[in-house]
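User: My instructor asked us to take a sequence, write out its structure as tokens, and then describe one feature of it. I'm not sure where to start. Here is the sequence I was given:
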Amino acid sequence: MNIEMKNLSENEYSDILSTAINQIQASRNAIAAQINTAANSTYWNLGKLLHDRKIEGGYGSNIINRLSIDLKSSFPDMGLSPRNLWNMKLFYERYANSDKKLLQAVAVLQWGHNLLMINKKLSDEEAYYYATESVLKNWNRNLLLNAIKMDSFSLNKNAFRDNNFSKTLPALQASQANEILKDRYNLGFLGLTEPVAELYFVDLLFSNRKLNCLVAIDLKIGEFKSEYVGKMNMYLSLLDKIEKEENENQSIGIILCAEKDHLDVELALQDINKPIAVSDYELLVPKKELQTLVLNEMKQAQIADDDKE
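Assistant: Let's start with the prediction itself. The structure tokens for your sequence are:
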């Protein structure tokens, strides 16, 4: 080991390694997106050609079969089977009248992902959701299939995201932050069963390893007020200026209130440039969750006893 390596702390080396991995992965994702875009552009143009020439089933099958044979003789590795040529026509016809945002989203997907979404007959809004989620979370085809079967679009649509992460954070970090953030928090784990007194600065400050940033939590005893957002915005500015390390992402703020109104939160956040979320809280574990917790503990205890016998 050379002198330079000896003088390098483990944290410094871990940071170098993490940064290198992220850069390589980002480059690979960018290359994959370019390849997918080029392939999908070709499939789109071929599908448009078949659509414009009004190639339909029946008599069109003979034309498609002959076209497939002739094209494969020149381009044997392009997957130009009769079935795939029909799929290209479907691909064009499905998105020909869609808006630019959706076209850009499906353009970077793998061909198998696009075929799956077409076969599931998704709406434009659903297709955009699953396309963007596939890219952001690097879903393979099976994960995409499971997400569609679970109807994660409806689950996410019905859950209000009272934050401005999509406007203030890079896309991947915004997605990760949304996965971590809850719409409601239970503060029973803090031993809080009665109303709490407010402080004049953030009540809790965490460092989140996955997001690589500081997370400031401000606990309010009553319903949400728009002024809380302005104060949190100031707190985050101070944290980023004084406490944030060079290798960390910008700090995130979470305002916990006893009650909130989605529209009030949306209006308060619309002109804020720092990533802030608003959630409400409970002081006691809900009855159903408590019952589930107890039952799970009993099952685990029974399994442990059975293993001993």
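For the description part of your assignment, you could build on this observation: The domain at 165-288 is CATH 3.40.1350 (Trna Endonuclease; Chain: A, domain 1). Try explaining in your own words what that tells you about the chain.
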